[in-house]
Amino acid sequence: PKSESAAIQRFGLGCLYLLLFQVIGMFVSDEFLLSQDFRDLSFVRKHLVVGIWGRYTLYKYISCWLLAEGACILFGVTHNGTNENGEIQWNGLENVKLSLFENTTQFNHYIQSFNINTNHWVAHYVYKRLKFLGNRNLSQLGALFFLAVWHGYHSGYFVCFFFEFLVIYLERDVQSIVKSNETLSKFFEQPSVVLIVRILLRLYTFVFMGFCLIPFVMLTLEGYWHVFVSINFSGVVLFALYPI
């Protein structure tokens, strides 16, 4: 079956995200987060910059995946049968779901939409095999520890994936509290409240995804500690103190 149009679409998206990566990088970079200019910004502007920097960081990976996927589609290796409408699917090697990624309202959406194949592999071969621990949180910690070691031995990898655990823990707990409380559930189902909450959650995921990436990119304690100090340890206070 013909694959040219699907290949051009993903390749074109790859070029677009590569362009966005280059343009954003002209204004926000790793070096900027370590600069005095960043430290001199207001509290709110710092966090917005961290969010934009997080997108800049992730767009690097997304552009590479989309460009590679376009080539793989062209050669036919991504053919994945047909959907319920009989349309040919070329998503056999899809590694990012752009619509979900760009509209996240919870961190679990990032897990579902970003680096999909790696996440599926770890869930199947690591997370599920830790079922014998008898605790979902321990299984998740074990899987994330595996991912940290897989990336390398810099402390930043371990801090980053530990924050992922804390963020998911917080979100699951809050969702459980809301669902178990009828009054809260009805309040959050009101149309006007739904819109406001959605906007706030979009900002929350946008900003704090950038925060969680700081140790992943800076790698060393000296690097990510410097940025944490600049933003007054906001994410540390929010996520690390929540279980306590």
UniProtKB/TrEMBL annotation:
Gene name in the database record: nes
Localization (cell): Endoplasmic reticulum; Membrane
Pathway membership, UniProt: Phospholipid metabolism; Lipid metabolism; phospholipid metabolism
Topology term for the membrane: Multi-pass membrane protein
GO molecular function, one term: 1-acylglycerophosphocholine O-acyltransferase activity
Keyword Lipid metabolism appears in the UniProt entry: yes
Membrane-spanning ranges: 7-28, 143-170, 191-217, 223-242
One Pfam entry name: MBOAT
Keyword Ribonucleoprotein: no
Keywords: Acyltransferase, Endoplasmic reticulum, Lipid biosynthesis, Lipid metabolism, Membrane, Phospholipid biosynthesis, Phospholipid metabolism, Transferase, Transmembrane, Transmembrane helix
Source organism of this protein record: Rhyzobius pseudopulcher
Biological process annotations from GO: lipid modification; phosphatidylcholine biosynthetic process
Domain of life per record: Eukaryota
GO CC terms: endoplasmic reticulum; membrane
Protein's recorded name: Lysophospholipid acyltransferase 5
PANTHER family from the UniProt entry: LYSOPHOSPHOLIPID ACYLTRANSFERASE 5 (PTHR13906:SF14), PORCUPINE (PTHR13906)
Record-stated family: Belongs to the membrane-bound acyltransferase family.
EC number(s) on file: 2.3.1.23, 2.3.1.n6
